Amino acid sequence: MNKLFTLTGLLLFSGILATAQNIQNNPGSNHGNKFEQLGTILPTPNEQRTASGAPGVKYWQQRADYNIKCELDEKNLLLTGSETITYTNNSPDPLTYIWLQLDENEHSTSKNANYQDATKMPALGTTQNLDQLSTRTDNGYGINITKLTDATGKSLKYTVNKTMMRVDLPVALRTGQKLIFNIDWNYKITDRMSVGGRGGYEFFPADGNYLFTMTQWYPRLCVYSDFQGWQNHQFTGRGEFALTFGDFKVQMTVPADHLVGSTGECINYSAVLSPTQLNRYNTAKTATAPVEIQTLAEAKVAETKKSTAKKTWVFNANNVRDFAWTSSRKFIWDAMPQKIEANNNTVMCMSFYGKEAYNLYSKFSTRAVAHTIKTYSDFTIPYPYPVAQSIEAANGMEYPMICFNYGRTDADGTYSESTKNGMLGVIIHEVGHNFFPMIVNSDERQWTWMDEGLNSFVEYLTEELWDNKFPSKKGPAYTIVDYMKLPKDELEPIMTNSENIARFGPNAYSKPATGLNILRETIMGRELFDYAFKEYARRWAFKHPEPADLFRTMEDASGEDLDWFWRGWFYGTDPCDISLDSVKFAKADFPKEIPAARSRMVKIDKPAVNAFEDISKIRNREDKKISFYVDKNTAAQDFYYKYDRGMVTVDTTTATKVEMAMPLEVVPAAEQSKYENKFLYELSFSNKGGLVMPIIVEFTYKDGTKEIDRIPAQIWRHNELKTSKFYVKDKEVESILVDPLRETADIDTSNNTWGGQAKESKFKIYKMKAAGTVRGQSSGANPMQKATGK
Fold first, then answer.
1. 158 and 165 in contact (C-beta within 8 Å)?
2. Structural domain ending residue among the three candidates 220, 244, 268
3. Nearest Cα to 115, choosing from 125, 126, 106?
């Protein structure tokens, strides 16, 4: 602690003066608000949602339980249903009306939300294109309400506004009270392959059969919450759903030769399955590989016979936010169990798929389902439901315990590696949605990223643990670079309403997933991140979190101040572009004479206030605890060090004589060996992109060895535009590379390198006798930083 690294007086203080004059000439030019707290940007904590990010002591949410009976008319492509809803008001507010979603009205030309996008004349079109662009007549789609009554059979007044229905209550529903009411309805099922949407049918001309995906198919309660009241924003087809938890009992009457997959557990398999099918299902419960309950050969036979008889399948699902199902005679059906050790839950993992997907789905689908719920359980909370299913439907959409995916082979049964990986990615993603948002129940209509972004992040972790070489598209930082470098008028913050996002995929899926991965690998570290992320999932399982609840929990559970990161990555559009502007190089010099003190008069203002592989894959390979599914430095004591601790002082007058008056002596020969063979470097960086991020520096030495220094983002706190770092090295540096593993989504790597052309200078070293006095002004910058190497 008694040695001082210094230069001659003039060089020492030129750094102080230059920095001070720069601040005087460019006030505010180097410091904005990137490290300020989010403050009032986040909602004020209260008794429902605490400042820690946890639900408060007075947190509440509503409940809706459903008893539904429906019938699928395959010949007329019609679904008819009746339901009894029990709605419980747990809020402190008396409700004089309630809101329900009628999502099928999206397909209607007369009842839909009618939020139109700009249209153009197609260069090459079809009559169907023109029908969609020009029709103004009622196309007959949308839900028809045929009866709405209370529990006694008395009619209730209601108003349909596009995709929302308000039911007026004759008496206010007060806190703790239940409302029981009945709805009868029907709608014409749409061809989702031509008109789009998540639910409907697909027709197979080759065998004359249909595959039905019944989603958003029943009138269902909107969310009434503490943070916004009724979430009754219209459904336009993009922003997904805000839904209320409850228990479901659903009876589906379908053609007798159909197989049905559904949210929940079937409670009457003995009535709807053949003895052979039932025996196979029971065998599958303890199998170690998927067991076919309906075989390929049996499915092909079923396609040729169209039964006119009917069967009713009955399913129960508890504590879910939604309910979906599928029905077809085309299905092959297989199943196997997956044990979730953390809660001792055995989950039946199942797949339903047509012959068109057999060679892919029979090999991979159910295994991928099992891998997904196990891996997500490890990263979040233990999977709580009894079933998880993947349905091949040339689609990609999720619901509790069931999801619809794509993955068909070519006509000859072969498939490409890209098709296989695409299928696996979709299955993992859609099954993963069981956790976000089916359990951690965020508002997708408002914040798509809380659903898709968080899920895409854990999807990436799960893909990587399926296969260390899996070609993930969402998660690794380098994959978001092309989006981040777009012009600012083509970008918008992640914190943008779902309906208003222009580049939906990168904004709502990839950028938030990448941000979370950067937090995990580069900023927080795996241990801190994983603990905090699991805490968020645990706190908000089966509840309705908002963005602030995630942001606050991640900080609360980790002890990391991340407001700068949320501000830049989620609320801003600046990219990361860190430039290595210069490298100064010096060798130690031990003069035999002591320099005289030097001084000058300056005008100084008031003091300033002080095949590329990403890192996740590499770390996973190094972690001996991980098995993959597929293949089973002391800083030198400089002048600033002394100044900052009161060992030297400066004056604060406007016109000041600055002089070096530090007592020094020649370093004894015996002490010179400590530094005479050291290599001294100063690296200067600039923040050209605007987004503050950590600086990761890889040194390659002349002997071929490498070393990485990870500098936290807080190095930019006092100057968000420029910064520098001083190093003392034992070996000479051949080259320097910033962000060697492309962890920060740096959009311009051309300014990340240095090739060792710095001219050597002498760094003068003296021994300090005792603390001296320096009169003048300090800018708060390290006085060596501007002087090294001159």
1. yes
2. 244
3. 106
SS3 content of the chain, % helix, strand, coil (to 5): 25, 30, 45
| Residue at 680 is within a domain | yes
Which among 476, 472, 477, 507 has a CA at the least distance from the CA of 492? 507
What b/e readout covers 742-774, taking b as 16+ CB neighbours within 10 angstroms?
A: bbbbbbebebbebeeebeebebbbbbbeeebeb
pLDDT of residue 771: 45
Q: What is the pLDDT of residue 31?
A: 63
Last residue of one domain, picked from the residues 209, 244, 279: 244
Instruction: Enter the DSSP assignment of 614.
Output: -
Whole-angstrom distance, CA of residue 728 vs CA of residue 315:
69
Judge whether 747 and 576 are in contact, CB under 8 Å: yes
- Determine contact, residues 716/723, Cβ cutoff 8 Å: yes
Q: Is residue 476 part of a domain?
A: no
Question: How many Å separate Cα 228 from the centre of its chain?
Answer: 23
Low-confidence ranges of the chain (pLDDT < 70): 1-31, 114, 116-117, 128-129, 131-136, 596-611, 631-663, 756-790
* Helix, strand or coil, per DSSP, at residue 591: coil
Is residue 197 in some structural domain? Answer: yes
Task: Tell me 499's DSSP state.
Answer: G
In single-letter form, the type of residue at position 724 comes to S
Q: What CATH number did the domain enclosing 689 receive?
A: 2.60.40
pLDDT of residue 601: 56
Give CA–CA dist 568/743, Å, rounded. Answer: 16
Phi-psi region of 789 (alpha: psi -120 to 50; beta: other; left: phi over 0): left
Domain count, the chain: 2
| Predicted local confidence at residue 656, as pLDDT | 54
| Residue 626 maps to a domain | no
Give the structural domain span for 92: 61-113+137-244
**657 pairs with which residues across the strands?**
601
